[in-house]
Amino acid sequence: MFAKDAKVRTSKYAYASTLDELKDACEKIGYPCWTKPIQSSSGQGSYFVKRPKDIETAYKEAHAHARGSADKIIVEEHIDFKLEVTELAVRHLDENNKTVTSFPKPVGHYQIDGDYHASWQPAEVSKKVERDIYATTKKITDCLGGLGLFGCELFIGQDDTVYANEISPRPHDTGMVTMSTHASGYSEMGLHARAVLGLPIPTVEANNVRQIPLMSPGATHVILSPVNAGNVQYRNIYPAMNMYPNSTIRLFGKPEAHVGRRMGVAIALADTAKEAVQRAEKMAHTIEIGSNGKWYAQDEKIKHVL
Ligand SMILES: Nc1ncnc2c1ncn2[C@@H]1O[C@H](COP(=O)(O)OP(=O)(O)OP(=O)(O)O)[C@@H](O)[C@H]1O
Ligand SMILES: [Mg+2]
């Protein structure tokens, strides 16, 4: 749909169902490339194919983790991007009952093992790239139609080309940062609810684009479990929350933890998004997860890219 109907730039791609078709598709796209079951979540079943001998493992991986009955695999060209962003475009009604699209500032993020690790707003993009982000997202959401907030994941190439990656027809995990960066009631969830209920959404006009204004730069960082455990407890919440003004910890209330499971996020504000990323990371890493009287720190081995 991205490539054929919305006519936006995507990575080169091909589909395959059998192992032989997968081999042909990888040859056609070239190496390295990505293989993904056409239905999955959180990067599950995806494989980064560096060379032909990886294809069999990639095929097994896709089949083991596919969701639903779909057995098709998509092969994608690897985009050596400089930044990943999510544009949280909102389709909603204006004062004349006409459907319009409004754009929050792009959210930057980075992923570890196919899952989002930290996100920040605004993303560090030029004015031109920002315009391309809004234009690309508009073309895609126009094709989808309906009302609500859409999380459009995009890659920004080394030469500033904007590639469409995927879209969620609902709030997006990287967009949790808007719980602090947007005005109260206008987080990505608030915007989604307002859009589908036909409630007003205030916007500002900038460069001929309807924008959702930002209150402050901010960032989120995930709190990942270092253990497999039931009845989880948390400690160091006060020290983490008292580290910086206007920051907060959100725990998701999941009853069970397993290694690498996302249990919550730290959200911090600062004068710049970069400073907010460092704050949120420090806060998240202060939280310890407990089970059966033992306490476990966040995995310090995880390297950060900023
Ligand atoms: N073609 C590609 N080129 C470069 N990187 C890629 C490509 N496809 C995926 N990735 C990397 O893997 C991550 C996860 O891929 P993708 O968004 O397709 O999976 P997902 O299952 O939707 O994951 P999530 O639900 O966490 O968004 C991307 O955000 C990106 O970092
Ligand atoms: Mg994704």
In short:
This protein is of the alpha+beta class. Helices cover 25% and strands 35% of the residues. The chain has eight helices and 20 strands.
Fold topology:
Layout: H1 2-6, E1 13-16, H2 19-29, E2 33-37, E3 47-49, H3 55-65, E4 73-77, E5 81-93, E6 99-104, E7 107-112, E8 115-121, H4 127-144, E9 148-157, E10 162-168, H5 178-181, H6 188-197, E11 204-206, E12 209-212, E13 218-224, E14 229-230, E15 233-235, H7 237-241, E16 248-251, E17 256-257, E18 262-269, H8 273-286, E19 288-291, E20 294-296
Parallel strand pairs: 6-12
Antiparallel strand pairs: 1-4, 2-3, 2-4, 5-6, 5-7, 5-9, 7-8, 8-13, 9-10, 11-12, 13-18, 14-17, 15-19, 16-18, 19-20
The structure holds adenosine-5'-triphosphate and magnesium ion (MG).
Q: How would you describe this structure to a colleague?
A:
It is a single chain. This protein is of the alpha+beta class and 306 residues long. It has 3 domains: 2-77, Dna Ligase, domain 1; 81-212, 2-Layer Sandwich (D-amino Acid Aminotransferase, Chain A, domain 1); 218-296, ATP-grasp fold, B domain (D-amino Acid Aminotransferase, Chain A, domain 1, 2-Layer Sandwich), CATH 3.30.470. Helix content is 25%, strand content 35%. The protein has 8 helices and 20 strands. It has helices at 2-6, 19-29, 55-65, 127-144, 178-181, 188-197, 237-241, 273-286; strands spanning 13-16, 33-37, 47-49, 73-77, 81-93, 99-104, 107-112, 115-121, 148-157, 162-168, 204-206, 209-212, 218-224, 229-230, 233-235, 248-251, 256-257, 262-269, 288-291, 294-296. Strands 5, 6, 7, 8, 9, 10, 11, 12, 13, 16 and 18 form an 11-stranded mixed beta sheet that branches. A 4-stranded antiparallel beta sheet has the order 1-4-2-3, with helices on one face. Strand 7 (107-112) and strand 8 form a beta hairpin. The longest helix has 18 residues, at 127-144. The structure holds adenosine-5'-triphosphate and magnesium ion (MG). Adenosine-5'-triphosphate is lined by residues 11, 34, 36, 40-43, 46, 76, 78-79, 84, 111, 114-116, 153, 165-166.
